[in-house]
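User: Round two. Same drill as before: sequence, then structure, for each protein.

Assistant: Same drill it is. First protein:
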Amino acid sequence: MKIIIRIIMFLLLILECPSVMADSNIQADIAGSPVITDNLITANINLTYLQIGFSRLFANTLDEYIINNNNPQIKIPVTNLYLLCDGQAYQLSNTGMQLFYIDMLDFTRTAQKNITLRLENTGELPAGTYSVPIRFVNRTNIALEYECEFLFSFTIDEKQSISSFSGEPNIILSEDDVFNKQVSIKNKNDIRLDITSNTDWKLWLDTSNIKELEGEYSFLIKNAAGSITNYEQNYVRLLPNQHYLLARGTSTIEGLQPGNNVPSNIVIEYSFKNSDADSYLKEGIRQYPLTYVIERE
């Protein structure tokens, strides 16, 4: 009787379906959001499939690269992508199907299998949404094959930062400088700003915390390195409550491997002089609160 029932089910499936079947016969759904950490991205997947006799489950990618949808020139080889099933890791590719599970329970049922996709050796990535289509195939022992596509996708958020260990510009007006109204006094400590960003960026100097300036202050960018595309190259006088565009640049991420974030930097010289020929200034240190702001271009 059991054999007769199986034959009837087999004939019904043959009549309803071609040799390759899709849709509800196999389905891949993500379980939660992808987990993104340094150098590793994982996503849990739940496979639901129709088993007729025993099943063999295969997977492959449909593209050679995982593409940044915001900038298709940024792409990760799919050879960095692995499928984890029952403690085993299987490297995926677009050139051949990878067998990763055999279900030996020999009867007809709807089965489930939990797997994990793991993208390794990513390093830091430029911001944007990355994706690659993956095909899952279920081959049964009665010559039926089912397949579905799953879009593996994750998003890298924008991230910019500025770091400096130079402190505030330190300008010292000596006793002799009080009476020398022609000299421009430079800061004792040049200010170096290190910039990291996974997008194109621009850097501003904000003087909104300064209400009044004594004398004439100016800045000059003495040096620029890294991914900077242009920067202010002239002496610029500082005034209170202003925003000054210092520099623009591209992403500081170079390549797609660990240790690929190479900071860009600028070195700023600040200077001071007495612009009023009829007044004298007191000697001492001149420091004012300056704020640096980085944002996406």
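Second protein:
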Amino acid sequence: MACFYFYNQPKKVSKIYKIGILSHARVLDMSLKGFKDGLKSFGYSENQNIKYYYDGATNDISKLPNALQKLLDKNVDMILSLGTPASIQAQKGTKINKIPVLFAPASNPIASGLVKSISSPGENVTGVTFGLQEVKRLEWLLKFLPHVKKIYYPYNSKDTSPAATLKRLQKYLKGSDIEIIIADVASEEQIKKSLKNLPQDIDVVYVSTDALVASYLQYYLSVFNKLKIPISVPHRIGVEQGAFMSYGFSLYELGFQSARIAKEILEGMNPGDIPVEYSEFKLSINIDNMKELGIKIPETILKQAIIVGKDVY
């Protein structure tokens, strides 16, 4: 579902609502920014009638339970969970008190057990997700780079989102001569270590819907740009930071989109009765990186994509 920025005149809100934010990856802070801007457009302004509680991303999935408890101790009216691990933790921690949980985003919320269905989530959880676009992104990548034989896939195996994506990609590539080389990383230290012990003959790096890995994209860019190896990322923000391409969504726009759902919840609707929404996907290409890597993309395709880079401005 596309994100639109034109709304009715915001209503006057007198009550002060408390919203707790739970996240394990700082890259998702862009979604929070969009969320805040979206709620402001509805008349919910920070420190006026909305108070946010957020100590920042935990940078470690194992620290989510403690972070959630701190929010619950604040008696928040809603929890905004950024990413699948945070959303699963928020769901577990609110099974009894039924505090509304709004994910922005969470991948494949049905498979991860967050909702019963897209149209009727049930319980106290709903939000904005993204479709199964990762195979489509791989299709685009292989169209641009038909010579690829080895794909480097860094991810945290304990995160259900990139783990599920890996299975889909392996299924898609079954029968081909393309190999996916995985690097299981669950912390900044492990990411740094893995980048010092890279396998040979990597053709491309595929950063999946792993918010932790995406949060440390600059580490990958600093290494692989020197090696002239393209990087594909799940979010447009990664392309803006210097990665080659993405077929995904804008975290800011997704967060902005989720604000409308938050408005409905704050005004009394049951999250379980609010359908899960889909974010909009677009092809994004960093034209500067494309030229540095010597990649040729037909003009007809470039016209369909969102182009970022210094040459655009």
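The chain has two domains: 17-131+251-278, 134-249+282-312.

User: Perfect.
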